[in-house]
Amino acid sequence: MTISQQAVADWIAAFARAVAADRDHLTALDAAIGDADHGVNMDRGLRAVAEKLAAEPAPDIGALLSRVGTALVSSVGGASGPLYGTLFLQMGAAARGQRELDLAAWTGALERGVEAVARLGKSRPGEKTMLDALAPAVQALRSAAGATVAVAMGAAERAAHAGMLSTIPLVARKGRASYLGERSAGHQDPGATSAWLMLRAAAEAWKAS
C-alpha cells in the first residue's frame, strides 16, 4: 500500500485536531520546564496551516508538506516554529513532485526531516527534546521495512510514545528547559509529546493502509 496525497492531508488535519484537544496539556507540560506556550503556539500554527492549505491547494505531496512547514515557521512562536517548520520543509523537499509515497519514501522523507531538526537544534536523542520521540520512530520505520504502512506506523507510534516517556527522568541539555539544570528531571518534554501526537495522528489516519 502507498500513502496518497489525500492521506497526507488527512494526517495533517488529524495532527491539528490532536494538538487542539491536548493544547492545555502541552502548555502545562511546558509551564513546568519552559515558557508555558507550547500548546497555544502549536495550536495557532496548525490553524494557520489549515488556512494556508485551504487557500493554496498543493499540486503534490512535496508542495503540501512544504506549505505546512512555511506556515509553521511564520506562525509558531519560540523554538517550535523553526524546528517543526524545518521538519516539514525537509520532508517536502524529499517528496517533491510525488503524488503518492511508498513506505520507503515516507521513511526517507521523515528521516531527512528529523536529521535537519537535529542539525538546527544542535541536538541528539537523550537531551530531552522532540528528537527523543522522533528518532526512535524513524528507527522503528526502518526496522519495519517490507511491512504495510499501517503496521509500520503502529510500530513508529509505539516507539515515539516510549521515547516521549523516556524524557521524564532526563536532565534537559537544550532549549529553555536546560536553564533549570537538574530541576528539569521528572518532567515530560512538551516537544517530544507533540511529536508523539504527530506520529499517533499518522498511525490513526493510515490504519487502513
**pLDDT < 50 runs, ≥5 residues:** none
Largest sheet: 2 strands, antiparallel
How would you state the average pLDDT, rounded? 94
Helical residues, percent: 55-70%
**Cα end-to-end separation:** 6 Å
Helices, by number, come to 9
Q: What structural class is derived from the secondary structure elements?
A: mainly alpha
Note the beta-strand portion: under 5%
List the strand order in the largest sheet. Answer: 1-2
Count the strands? 2
The sequence of SSEs as H and E is EHHHHHEHHHH
Radius of gyration: 16 Å
Gross morphology is: globular
Task: Provide tags for this entry.
single chain; 209 residues; two-stranded antiparallel ribbon; 9 helices; 2% strand
Q: How would you summarize what this structure contains?
A:
The chain has helices at 5-21, 23-33, 38-55, 61-75, 80-94, 103-121, 131-143, 149-166, 190-205; strands at residues 3-4, 100-101. The chain is an all-alpha fold and 209 residues long.
Structure, explained:
The protein has 209 residues and is mostly helical. It is 68% helix and 2% strand. The protein has 9 helices and 2 strands, in the order E-H-H-H-H-H-E-H-H-H-H. The protein has helices at 5-21, 23-33, 38-55, 61-75, 80-94, 103-121, 131-143, 149-166, 190-205; strands at 3-4, 100-101. Strands 1-2 form a two-stranded antiparallel sheet. Helix 2 packs across helix 3, helix 3 (38-55) packs across helix 4 and helix 4 (61-75) runs antiparallel to helix 5 (80-94). The termini are close together.
